[in-house]
Amino acid sequence: xxxxxxxxxxxxxxxxxxxxxxxxxxxxxxxxxxxxxxxxxxxxxxxxxxxxxxxxxxxxxxxxxxxxxxxxxxxxxxxxxxxxxxxxxxxxxxxxxxxxxxxxxxxxxxxxxxxxxxxxxxxxxxxxxxxxxxxxxxxxxxxxxxxxxxxxxxxxxxxxxxxxxxxxxxxxxxxxxxxxxxxxxxxxxxxxxxxxxxxxxxxxxxxxxxxxxxxxxxxxxxxxxxxxxxxxxxxxxxxxxxxxxxxxxxxxxxxxxxxxxxxxxxxxxxxxxxxxxxxxxxxxxxxxxxxx
Length: 292
Known about the structure:
With 292 residues, the protein is α/β, with parallel strands linked by helices. The protein is 35% helix and 20% strand. The chain has seven helices and nine strands; from the N terminus they run βαβββαββαββααβαα. A nine-stranded mixed β-sheet has the order 3-4-2-1-5-8-7-9-6, with helices on both faces. Helix 6 crosses helix 7. The longest helix is centred in the last third of the chain and has 31 residues, at 213-243.
């Protein structure tokens, strides 16, 4: 168990449009989110961009901006795995989206919840405000099927043991995958509503006449995660659900890309393992919706 004087590692993947928010809003807020020393590690997902978060010591934070040396744009999991390898946290670490503002003491609340919960806890997810992914959690145990990658505390030993996030997804569903691996490896995933952030997500305001990356990646990655955890039967059912979509052309594009580039790369490591919290209830639905 770490002490109150041990530093906490916080990781953040960003793009050029996020830099002003990170420097003017996120970094000052992080300094108020915990009483511990902070090591804030960042990386720009676009290696060709000259825009970088300023490194150094500000607001009491040690800020390390890693250089992205990849030949092309890199995904969410890939970048978090790089930052984890660089930071090499001993106990746990935090991942946070660049469009967030953590509330006062929110990270300390996550850490306290992980330390006081019985058993092995892999992930403790904070509450997103004013909008969050509505999903079930047990009000007594705080168990939840999966934790969002927007703001979560992750056990370093667990993360290291599974080799980090699966970068096959590029964007979206890595957090569901990570959570399911936790449940299937004897860990629990916790939702802590007392640890909150303001998340400036735009998905609640998507326009019908615009195709957003989240919509396409979610379709393609739905097939990937279905095959990884439920094998050939999962793959077949995922494709069937996509073909029943009203926007059949978009589904066909996602299926085609999956067949050409991903079908042979998806491992079926977990197809024979089952847990009540590893479940698909519909297209892109891995939980029972809750209203509060």
